[in-house]
Amino acid sequence: MKLEKVAIQLEALGNPTRLQLYRILVRAGDEGLPVGRIQEKLDIAASTLSHHLKRLVDTGLVTQERQATTLICRAHYPGMQALIGYLADECCADGTCPPVAREVVA
Predict the structure, then answer these.
(1) Which residues fall within 8 angstroms of residue 76, CB to CB, at 6 or more apart?
(2) Phi, psi (rounded to 5 degrees) for 102
(3) 75 CB neighbour count, 10 Å cutoff
(4) Is there a contact between 72 and 34 (Cβ–Cβ < 8 Å)?
């Protein structure tokens, strides 16, 4: 994966609304969600949602499919995996990894 593409994707996810939108779509699974349902969940104007969706689609993190009059949005899982892989694939390649912190359950 190219550094420029990763930077653009991370920049897109750096916006709180887009990050929340992306997490909603990741949680929705392969079925995705209609735009109207996303708008309800985020409680934002349709024009604002359209702007944020376009940015995520343009960066390759979200896909859209028209089903009759409904626009279904889905997280593009291969794009997400490529981004995560880029960040983690060379973890500790030039040194020793720190110990994994264990979460204490109270």
Answers:
(1) 60, 61, 62, 63
(2) -100, 135
(3) 23
(4) yes
Q: What are the E-state strand segments in the chain?
A: 33-34, 62-67, 70-75
Q: What is the pLDDT of residues 28-79, one digit of tens each?
A: 999 999 999 999 999 999 999 999 999 999 999 999 999 999 999 999 999 9
Predicted TM-score of the model (pTM): 0.85
Q: Within 10 Å of residue 44's Cβ, how many Cβ atoms?
A: 17
Q: Which two tokens stand for residue 106?
A: 């109270």
Give the whole-angstrom CA distance, residue 55 versus residue 105: 38
Residue 15: which residues within 8 A CB-CB, separation 6 or more? 52, 55
User: What amino acid is encoded at 71 in this protein?
Assistant: L
CB 38 within 8 A of CB 23: no
Residue among 46, 72, 78, 58 at smallest CA distance from 11: 58
